[in-house]
C-alpha cells in the first residue's frame, strides 16, 4: 500500500496531496468528534478510521516532501511536465488497479464492521 500511496502523491503533487488529505481529515474528524459526543459509536469509529487513513497519506506525503527537498528534486505534479507524465504512464501501467486496490483495502474494514453490526440485531431475535 505504501508504494501506491507514494505514487499517487507524486502524481498529484506532494503539497496538493498533503493539503487535500489534511482538509479531509479535519472535516471528517469534526464529524467523528460530534458522533463521539452524541454517543453514535458506529459513525464515530467509521469517521476516525477515515481520519487515520488520511493521516497515513499525509505522513507518507510529508516524508516524500522532505526527501525531495533534501535531494533537490522537483516537488510538483507530473501533470506539469509532459515527458515525466509519459514516463510515469510507462512505469505504472496499472495505476487504475492500484487505485481500486487502495480503495478496497481502505474501505473493507468498515464494510465488515457495518455488516457485523447489521447482522447483530438479527442474531438476538433468534
Brief descriptors of the model:
126 residues; mainly alpha; 5 helices
Explain what you see.
By secondary structure, the protein is an all-alpha fold. It is built from five helices and no strands. The longest helix is centred in the middle third of the chain and has 31 residues, at 41-71. The N and C termini lie far apart (41 Å). 14% of the residues are buried.
The rough form would be described as elongated
- Poorly predicted residue ranges: none
- The helix content is over 70%
Largest sheet: none
Q: What is the typical, i.e. mean, pLDDT?
A: 79
| Beta-strand percentage range | under 5%
| Secondary-structure-derived class | mainly alpha
- Radius of gyration using CA atoms only: 18 Å
How many DSSP-defined strands? Answer: 0
Give the SSE order as H and E letters. HHHHH
Helical element count?
5
Distance between the termini: 41 Å
How many distinct domains?
Answer: 1
